[in-house]
Design goal:
The complex is a heterodimer of chains A (about 525) and B (about 375). Chain A is mainly α. In chain A, about 70% of the residues lie in helices and about 0% in strands. Chain A has helices at about 1-15, 20-25, 30-60, 70-105, 110-130, 160-185, 200-230, 245-260, 265-280, 285-300, 315-325, 330-340, 350-375, 375-380, 385-415, 420-450, 465-490. Classes of the chains: A mainly alpha (about 525), B alpha+beta (about 375). Chains A and B meet through α4, α10, α11, α12 and α13 of A and α2, α3, β7 and β9 of B.
Chain lengths: ~525, ~375
C-alpha cells in the first residue's frame, strides 16, 4: 500500500505543466505565474503607451486638434494609473516570481496558491478600470493623483469603479509582497545567509515591506473617497468640516514610498547586471544594502515635498526640504558603487549592459532634477510644471522601464533556452534611448519656461519643444513593438543558450539548465 | 549629457527655444532664480565628474582593448568619503535655500490686500476694503483654440480683466477656491500658491516695474484647467489710484442698473454675452451641454419649466454636482439676463422674461 502512495507522490513531484488554458488559470508554479505577470505588464505597457501617444499627438501643435479637454484628462489619468499599477509594478512582481526562487535556491514561492490569486486579481482590476472609459460620463479624469474634491464631489460617476479597481490592485500587491517576504525569509538554501543574497532579493525584500506599509494607506484613502461620494461623509469636504489637504497627506504618504517601490527592484537587477558585464564583483555590497534600507526609511518622511505649495508652515517646509535632500546621500552611494564596479573592469556592451549603463546615467539626471525639486523655494517655480513631468519620467522610463528591459534581456536565455537576437536588441536600445531623451529632455525646458502640466493646449512659445517631444515619444512608442518582436523571436527559436550564457554572471540561477526546468531546486543547493 | 546641458544653457537661442527659467520681476523671483542656477551648476559639476569617470571606464576598460578585470570590491574609507562629501555639499545647498525660504515667509504688514478665489475655470479678484471685485476670464476667442483663426501672441495667456496692482507696494494675496483645488501662479513674481476650497492661503509680492505678467492655473481642476490664465498688470501708484477710483464708480453704476426697466431685447443681448462668458464652458454655446456631467439646457425641463425653479438652480446651484451657486458670483442684472436668455435661446421658446428686480425679490425672499 505504501509503495502505491510513494509511487503516486513520485509521479506528482515530476509532472510537467498541465495542458491547455487551465495550465495558466490554475497554475501555482512560480515560473508560470512570473511569465503571466510579465506578459500582463507588457500588455498594459502597450495600452498605457498608446494613451501617451494620444496625449503627445494632441500636444504636437498648439490648438485643439484630436481630442477634447475632457477626454485628454482621461488619457493623462489612465496613462499614469496603467503605467504605475499595470506596467511597472506587475513587471517587477513577475521578475520576482521568476528569479527570487532561482536566486535563493528555493523550489517555488512560499505561498503558491496565493500567488495565483494575486496575479488573477490584476486582469479583473484592469478590466474594471479600463471599462470606465466606455461608461457614460467617461473614465477617471482627475489625474493619477486623484486629488479631492475633484475626484469626489466633482468626479464622473465611474469613480466608484475606479475605487474598486484600486482596492483590487492593492490586495494583489499586498499578497505579492507577503509572498516575497515569506519566500526570502523561509526558503533560502542552506548557507545562503541574508548578506549573501543577490541584491535583487535584498531590494525586493525591502520593497515588499514598503508595499505592506503603504498599500493599506492607499486603500484607506480611496475608502474615505467612497464614503464621501456615496455615504455623505466629509473627510475631504471643507463644507462639512473636512479637509481637502488631508487627502494629499494621506495620498502622498502612500505615494512617495510608491515611487521607491517602482525603482528599488530595478536597483537590485542592475546590481547583478553591471558586475556580470564588467567581469568584476559588485563594489560595496554591504553599503548597497544599507543604502537601500536608508532610502526606504527616508521615503516615509518626505511625502510633503509633493505639497510645498499647499500652504504648510515654514518649519514644515524646512523639515521636508532637508529630509528630501538627504535622500541624495544613499542614492549617491549607489551610483558611486555602480561606477566603481565598472572601473577597471573588462567591459562588454551586450543589450542588458547597454540598458544598465543608460539606467545609471539617466536615472542620475532624474536624481539631479529631483534634488532641484527638493529645494522648496525653487520648487515654487517648478511645482506642477513640465519640469516635474521631465523629472519623474527620467526616473521612471530609464529607471524602472530600462531596468526591466535590462533584466528581460539578461534573463531571457534562462527563461526561453534561446539567445535573443543581439543586433535587434541593440537597435531596440538605441531607438529607445534616443526616443526617450528626445521626448523627455525638452520637457525640462518647457517647465522652466512656464508650461504647466496636464494641459491639452498651450501658448505658442512652447510649440517647438512640444513638437520635438512628441516626435521623440512616437519614436520611443513604435520601438517597443520591436521589443515584442524580439521576445517572440527568442521564444520561438534562436541559438540554444547554455546554462550560463554570460561569462561574468554569478548566482544560483545560472546553475540550472536553460530553459529553466519546470521544477528547480527540489533539493536545495548548498551555498558555501 | 553634461556637455549637452552646458551647450543648451550657453548658446544664444531664439525666444521660442527658451531653455531656462526667467529671472522675473521681483526681489523674491531674482533670489529664487539665483538659487535655481546655483543648484543647477552644482548638479552639473557633479554630473560631469561622475559621468566623466563612467565614460572613461566605458572607453578604456573594455574587454575589446584586452583589459583584464581587477578584483577589488570594497573599501570602507571610500564609502565613508562618498557619504560625507555629498552630505557637506547638501548642507552648503541648504543654507541659501533656507535663507530664501525665510524671506518668502516674511510676515510683515502689507499695504494692499487682494482676495483671490479660484472657480472652475476663472479667477475672482476682490480688493479687500475697497468695494471692488470682478471675475477674470480667458479672452482668447474659441476660433483660435479650434484652429479656425490664427493664434495671437498671448494665446491662452490673455484675460478680459487682469488683476491690477501698484508697483513698489507690498501686495498680499489671500488665496482660496470655491469648488475644487486650483493653484495661482505667475512665474515672473515667483508666486505659486494652491487655492483650496474652505481654506485661505497667503502669499505676497512687491513688483518693481510696471508691466503685464502672465501665468496659469497649475493644479488640475477639471475640463478647462488649461484655459484659466492669470494676468497681473502692475501700474504706477498714481495710475493704480485712478484705476481703482474708476472701478468704484463703475461698480456703483452697475448697482443702479438693477432698478432700471429692462426690455426683452436688452436682456437677451446682455444675456448672450454673459452666458458665453460664464455658462458656455460647461453648457456649451449652443446649449447642448456635455451630458451627463453638464446637462443640456436646450429643451431641458428646468429651462423650459416654471421660472422659479430656473432662478433657484442658477442662484443656489445644485449641491453634489458641478453646478455652482451663481447668486453671489454674478450681479442681479447678469443673472436676470442669463436666465432670460436660457429660456428663449437654443430653440427654447418659453417667451417669458426675468428682470433684475425679480432676482432681487427672489434673493430677499430667501433671506
Amino acid at each position: 500500500m505504501s509503495a502505491v502512495i510513494d509511487h503516486g507522490h513520485a509521479g506528482h513531484d515530476h509532472h510537467g505543466p498541465a495542458k491547455g488554458l487551465m495550465r495558466w488559470v490554475l497554475t501555482t508554479n512560480h515560473k508560470d505565474i512570473g511569465t503571466m505577470y510579465l506578459w500582463f505588464s507588457f500588455a498594459m505597457f502597450l495600452l498605457g503607451g498608446s494613451m501617451a501617444m494620444v496625449i503627445r499627438a494632441e500636444l504636437f501643435q498648439p490648438g485643439l486638434q484630436i481630442v477634447q479637454p475632457e477626454f485628454f484628462n482621461q488619457m493623462t489619468t489612465m496613462h499614469g494609473l496603467i503605467m504605475v499599477f499595470g506596467a511597472v509594478m506587475p513587471a517587477f512582481v513577475g521578475l520576482a516570481n521568476w528569479m527570487i526562487p532561482l536566486m535563493i535556491g528555493a523550489p517555488d514561492m512560499a505561498l503558491p496558491r496565493m500567488n495565483n490569486f494575486s496575479f488573477w486579481l490584476l486582469p479583473a482590476a484592469f478590466t474594471l478600470l479600463v471599462s470606465t472609459l466606455f461608461m457614460e460620463g467617461g473614465g477617471p479624469n482627475f489625474g493619477w493623483t486623484f486629488y479631492a474634491p475633484l475626484s469626489t464631489t466633482y468626479a464622473p460617476e465611474s469613480v466608484t469603479f475606479f475605487i474598486f479597481a484600486i482596492h483590487l490592485m492593492g490586495i494583489s500587491s499586498i499578497m505579492g509582497a507577503i509572498n516575497v517576504i515569506a519566500t526570502i525569509l523561509n526558503l533560502r538554501a542552506p548557507g545562503m545567509t541574508l548578506m549573501k543574497m543577490p541584491l535583487f532579493a535584498w531590494t525586493w525584500l525591502i520593497t515588499a515591506f514598503l508595499l505592506i506599509a503603504v498599500m493599506p494607506v492607499l486603500a484607506g484613502c480611496v475608502t474615505m473617497m467612497l464614503m464621501d461620494v456615496h455615504f455623505g461623509t466629509s473627510f475631504f469636504n471643507a463644507a462639512g468640516g473636512g479637509d481637502p489637504v488631508l487627502f494629499q497627506h494621506v495620498f502622498w504618504f502612500f505615494g512617495h514610498p510608491e515611487v521607491y517601490i517602482m525603482i528599488l527592484p530595478a536597483f537590485g537587477a542592475i546590481s547583478s547586471i553591471i558586475p556580470a558585464f564588467s567581469r568584476k564583483p559588485l563594489f560595496g555590497y554591504t553599503s548597497m544594502v544599507y543604502a537601500t534600507a536608508s532610502i526606504a526609511f527616508l521615503s516615509f518622511i518626505v511625502w510633503a515635498h509633493h505639497m510645498f505649495t499647499v500652504g504648510i508652515p515654514i518649519t514644515g517646509e524646512l523639515f521636508f526640504m532637508y529630509a528630501t535632500m538627504l535622500i541624495a546621500v544613499p542614492t549617491g552611494v549607489k551610483v558611486f558603487n555602480w561606477v566603481t564596479t565598472m572601473w577597471r573592469g573588462s567591459l562588454t556592451f551586450e543589450a542588458p549592459m547597454l540598458f544598465a549603463v543608460a539606467f545609471v546615467i539617466l536615472f542620475t539626471i532624474g536624481g539631479f532634477s529631483g534634488l532641484m525639486l527638493a529645494i522648496a523655494p525653487a520648487d515654487f517655480q517648478y511645482h506642477d510644471t513640465y519640469f516635474v513631468v521631465a523629472h519623474f519620467h527620467y526616473v521612471l522610463v530609464p529607471g524602472a522601464i530600462f531596468g526591466i528591459f535590462a533584466s528581460a534581456y539578461y534573463w531571457l536565455p534562462k527563461w526561453t533556452g534561446h539567445m535573443y537576437d543581439e543586433t535587434l536588441a541593440r537597435l531596440h536600445f538605441w531607438m529607445s534611448f534616443i526616443g526617450m531623451n528626445l521626448a523627455f529632455f525638452p520637457m525640462h525646458f518647457l517647465g522652466l519656461a512656464g508650461m504647466p502640466r496636464r494641459i491639452p493646449d498651450y501658448n505658442l512659445q512652447f510649440a517647438d519643444f512640444n513638437m520635438v517631444s512628441s516626435i521623440g515619444a512616437f519614436t520611443f512608442g513604435v520601438t517597443q513593438l520591436l521589443f515584442l518582436f524580439i521576445v517572440i523571436k527568442c521564444i520561438r527559436g534562436g541559438k540554444p543558450a547554455p546554462a550560463k550564457p554570460w561569462d561574468g554572471a554569478d548566482g544560483l540561477e545560472w546553475t540550472v539548465p536553460s530553459p529553466a526546468p519546470y521544477h528547480t531546486f527540489s533539493t536545495p543547493p548548498e551555498v558555501k | 549629457m553634461g556637455i549637452l546641458l552646458w551647450l543648451a544653457f550657453t548658446t544664444p537661442t531664439r525666444a521660442e527655444w527658451t531653455v531656462n527659467m526667467a529671472p522675473g520681476a521681483t526681489d523674491v523671483s531674482h533670489a529664487v532664480f539665483d538659487l535655481h542656477m546655483t543648484i543647477f551648476w552644482i548638479c552639473a559639476v557633479i554630473g560631469v565628474l561622475v559621468f566623466g569617470v563612467m565614460f572613461w571606464s566605458m572607453l578604456v576598460h573594455r574587454r575589446s582593448t584586452g583589459q583584464e578585470a581587477a578584483h577589488f570590491h570594497e573599501s570602507t574609507t571610500v564609502e565613508i568619503l562618498w557619504t560625507a562629501v555629498p552630505f557637506i555639499i547638501l548642507v552648503l545647498m541648504a543654507i541659501p535655500a533656507t535663507k530664501t525660504l525665510i524671506d518668502i515667509y516674511d510676515p510683515s504688514e502689507s499695504e494692499l490686500d487682494v482676495q483671490i478665489t479660484g472657480y472652475q475655470w476663472k479667477w475672482h479678484y476682490k480688493y479687500l476694503g475697497q468695494d471692488v471685485e470682478f471675475f477674470s476670464n480667458l479672452a482668447t476667442p474659441r476660433e483660435q483654440i479650434d484652429n479656425r483663426a490664427p493664434k495671437g501672441e498671448h494665446y491662452l495667456l490673455e484675460v478680459d480683466e487682469p488683476l491690477v496692482v501698484p508697483v513698489g507696494t507690498k501686495v498680499r494675496f489671500l488665496i482660496t477656491a470655491a469648488d475644487v483645488i486650483h493653484s495661482w501662479w505667475v512665474p515672473s513674481l515667483a508666486v505659486k500658491k494652491d487655492a483650496i476650497p474652505g481654506f485661505v492661503n497667503e502669499a505676497w509680492t512687491r513688483i518693481d516695474k510696471p508691466g503685464i505678467y502672465r501665468g496659469q492655473c497649475t493644479e488640475l481642476c477639471g475640463k478647462d484647467h488649461g484655459f484659466m490664465p492669470v494676468v497681473v498688470e502692475a501700474k504706477s501708484k498714481e495710475d493704480f489710484t485712478a484705476w481703482l477710483a474708476e472701478r468704484k464708480q463703475a461698480a456703483a453704476a452697475e448697482r443702479e442698473l438693477t432698478s432700471k426697466e429692462w426690455s426683452m431685447e436688452e436682456l437677451m443681448a446682455r444675456g448672450e454675452k454673459a452666458y458665453n462668458t460664464t455658462c458656455a464652458a460647461c453648457h456649451q454655446p449652443d446649449g447642448t451641454g456635455l451630458p451627463p456631467m453638464f446637462p443640456a439646457l436646450k429643451g431641458s425641463p428646468i429651462a423650459t419649466g416654471p421660472v422659479q425653479g430656473h432662478i433657484d438652480i442658477v442662484v443656489n446651484g445644485k449641491p453634489g454636482t458641478a453646478m455652482a451657486a451663481f447668486g453671489k458670483q454674478l450681479s442681479e442684472v447678469d443673472l436676470a439676463a442669463i436666465i432670460t436668455y436660457e429660456r428663449n435661446a437654443f430653440g427654447n421658446k418659453v417667451g417669458d422674461m426675468v428682470t433684475p428686480k425679480d432676482i432681487l425679490a427672489f434673493k430677499q425672499a430667501q433671506e
